[in-house]
Structures are given as C-alpha cells and as structure tokens.
Amino acid sequence: MDVVRLGKGGHVRTVPMPAWVKAAVDAWTAAAGITEGTVFRAISKRGRVWGTGMTAKVLWDVVRHAAA
User: Fold this and answer.
1) What is the pLDDT of residue 7?
2) Which pLDDT score, from 0 to 100, does residue 61 have?
3) String of b and e for 7-37 (b: at least 16 CB within 10 Å)?
4) DSSP calls for 32-68
5) Which residues, other chains included, contact 55 with Cβ-Cβ below 8 Å and sequence gap of 6+?
6) Burial of 40 (C-beta count, 10 Å sphere; 0-12/13-18/19+)
7) Average per-residue pLDDT in the chain?
8) 49 in the same domain as 62
9) The pTM is what?
10) Distance CA 68, CA 41 (A)
11) One domain, residues 23 and 51
C-alpha cells in the first residue's frame, strides 16, 4: 500500500507502507476510537491521553531513539 503525503515545499510524495504497518495503525485507531485527526497522541505519566497530538518533531525523536 502506498501513502500519499505532502513533503517539503508542498510537494506530493508517495511513500510505500508495508501491509503489517497498515494493519497495526488500523488496529490502534480502532482500539483508540480514532476516526479522524491526529493518530499519535501524547500520554501523561498517569496513562491519560491529553492534548491534540504529537508534533512531527516529537514523532521523529521517538522513532530515532527507538531505532538507535
């Protein structure tokens, strides 16, 4: 499956997404009751969802640290 997103300068980019990633995102959005908007949400130390979602920079930092 391919995902279309806006890149730098407003250019449209097509990024391949493996089927297992789509399945995981679908499972997460269904379990979290997310039907629109931001997929990844901030979670407090108490385990509560808060805010309107994580920024792209925060997500990049999470991925970068997980891959290290």
Assistant:
1) 75
2) 92
3) eeeeeeeeeeeeeeeeeeeeeeeeeeeeeee
4) HT--SS-SS-EE-TTS-EESS---HHHHHHHHHHHH-
5) none
6) middle
7) 85
8) yes
9) 0.59
10) 22
11) no
Nearest by Cα to 1 from 34, 28, 24: 24
Residue 2's CB is within 10 A of a number of other CB atoms, namely: 8
Per residue in 7-33, pLDDT (tens digit) is 778 788 888 889 999 999 999 889 888
Does one domain contain both 31 and 41?
A: no
Given a cut of 90, whether residue 42 has pLDDT beyond it is no
Does the pLDDT at position 1 exceed 70?
Answer: no
Closest CA to 16 of 1, 32, 5: 1
Regarding whether 16 and 31 lie in a shared domain, the answer is yes
Q: What's the token pair of residue 45? A: 């130390």
